[in-house]
Amino acid sequence: MIKAIKIRLKPTKEQEILMWKSVGVARFAYNWALAKEKENYKNGVKFIFCRKLRDEFTKLKKTKEFIWLNEISSRTINQVFEDLQTAYNKFFKGLAKHPKFKSKKKSRKSFYVRYDAIKFKNGKVNMEKIGKVEYKTNYDIPNLLKYVNPRCHFDGRYWYLSLGFEQGENQVKLNKDLNVGIDLGIKDLAIVNCLDKPIKNINKSSKVKKLKKKLKRLQRQVSRKYEANKQGKKFIKTNNIVKLEKKIKLIHRKLSNIRLNHIHQATNKIIKLRPYRIVMEDLNITGMMKNKHLSKAIQEQCLYEFIRQMKYKCEFNGIEFIQVDRFYPSSKTCSRCGSIKKDLKLKNRVYVCSECGLVIDRDKNASINLGNYKLVG
Known about the structure:
By secondary structure, the protein is α+β, with helices and mostly antiparallel strands. Helix content is 42%, strand content 20%. A hairpin with a 3-residue loop joins strand 4 and strand 5. The radius of gyration is 25 Å and the shape is globular.
């Protein structure tokens, strides 16, 4: 399987300027190609494949007006057209929405790095057209001839290089008697059938609450400054607004990192139990997000990311991963006698079985049923 790692880069000022140029040119090429596709569709012309777009863009680079496009690696630009074609393929298959233009303010600041030019030596990594950049990491990076999908990106504070490489399964002894069922929730992140305590919701911690309170305060300050500097229908952005918006971005970055780190720790805790099988529900997260009362709480829990991490970590460790049907009544079924309570509502947080008299937490009952899925399903 492909193992991905992320390395923090420490570029010089000159190298950082080249990185920003690469980001800008990659965004320009993507928007140019997408505009061509939309124009052709309006004129009734068939979809243009990336090879034709690439050849047309190469001619554009030779003109005096766009000579600045030659300052970055040609492989970085070529990959942009392949990315757009991949986005269109997903759109045609119904797996994603139509590709959108990349905004200078909102889009991710990233670009492709030529894989066969990457070389690690003496604490520096060689990147085409950028040079040898210092890096910092705790990983043992293998020196290979080929890395998978290397990308350089800026997260608002630091530059990172992410890349993948082939690695075999982790050879570990699994407990053949341990079958783990996981029920995801909002009050707690996850309830595991074999753990006494649920995995807590990190958004309820004091650290996250303080950051969210600070974020709200800064957002109000920005809003007031925009209103104070409004001229007619236009909002004037002052230097103070720019400073505040940078602070807001850094808080969003910090919150995102805290949540991601918590999910990594939670999934690792489950994987270290070494079960032979892990069972979870196939949640309709898109449908859940339509609930206006719970959408924000669901979004902050990052449930999709939790499931994604469980999948690849199970694959890496040779653990069987099962997602049961989303209509499987894990919460309504009694984990002792198997009777189904059809009138169970969302507000009922304690499950009381009318047949055998079992009294148990609703989510714990669901996790036990998921753990015994093959026995009853």
